[in-house]
Write a structure and sequence with these properties.
Shape: globular
Structural class: alpha+beta
CATH topology: Double Stranded RNA Binding Domain
Largest sheet: 4 strands, antiparallel
Oligomer: single chain
Order of helices and strands: EEEHHE
Strand order of the largest sheet: 3-2-1-4
Number of helices: 2
Strand content: 25-35%
């Protein structure tokens, strides 16, 4: 599965959001932030599975990319 992530440069590295799963985490580099997001996604998916809930259907990437609140963020994807 592939999930959109949004990165924002911070003093400590990069904050990362996974908007379709309401995940926020961070890492010292882009790669570390993406890996933190990947791990958080796996934990989140396991929790959905454990309580027998469907994973929320994600919005199209374009919808996030055109959101003015996200205009300064870097968009990429994480595979899990």
């Amino acid at each position: 599965m592939r999930f959109l992530v949004m990165l924002e440069k911070t003093k400590a590295g990069f904050a990362v959001q996974v908007p379709d799963l309401a995940i926020i985490t961070s890492g010292e580099s882009v790669e570390a932030a993406k890996e933190a997001a990947r791990v958080a996604i796996l934990v989140n998916l396991a929790a959905y599975s454990e309580v027998v809930l469907s994973v929320p259907k994600g919005l199209p990437a374009e919808q996030h990319q055109t959101n003015p609140d996200f205009k300064d963020l870097l968009f990429t994807f994480v595979e899990v």
